[in-house]
């Protein structure tokens, strides 16, 4: 079979198969690197504190890379717009959300101030921060939540949802940030409330099994390209073997001996009908 494989036609086809296998192997390597890269934790850029105006603008959606970003914002809380939320994680039965107007942009920003186990204390905590003085709030910035988790029938609210605040806040000029801030201990202490338990967001990403599957798939394609060349060569060799066997069988069924000379047959004399009578 290898005598057939050494022919120029099959050598050229082998080089093509090796080239295709190399391309497939490179694609498999790229997919494997993607799966490993996607499994690495993202850089903790959120831990560098920035001003709110440096990371976003009013009405701009909050992407996943910005969730949990440490920010600083200065503004004034609006009297009468304090909201109490229930059923939230981070501490306490009730959490206080204030309406902060950003000094730099004039846009509205929900701020989770702190928590308390009593509703009246939660409301009073928000009222303590309402005055004409500008306050500097430090905390983490998160994407806005949906009001779907609220229990409207029981007049209970659980989501920090700007989409709802635009209808409940009294002082609102139609400019709202796309997220909200969870204030740190400084703001909670000023309101005489408990501090919301907040920590750096988890940046671990699960291993990307889909890219790993694609990597294995490309390796299989690479092996198949070489295997296909092998099958083509073997089929050509088997076809030649069958043709040679059929020729040999045909020759054995109809032998021809060229060394045998033809033999002249003897001539038998025939009696002449005109011979004389009585003569033998």
TrEMBL record:
Pfam families the record matches: SURF1
Places the protein is found: Cell membrane
Keywords tagged on the record: Cell membrane, Membrane, Transmembrane, Transmembrane helix
Ranges annotated as spanning the membrane: 209-230
Compositional bias (Basic and acidic residues): 271-280
Region (Disordered): 39-65, 243-280
InterPro entries in alphabetical order: Surf1/Shy1 (IPR002994)
Biased composition (Acidic residues): 255-264
Main location: membrane
Keyword Membrane in annotation: yes
Record's bilayer topology term: Multi-pass membrane protein
Signal peptide: none
Family the UniProt entry places it in: Belongs to the SURF1 family.
Protein name: SURF1-like protein
Naturally occurring in which organism (per UniProt): Curtobacterium herbarum
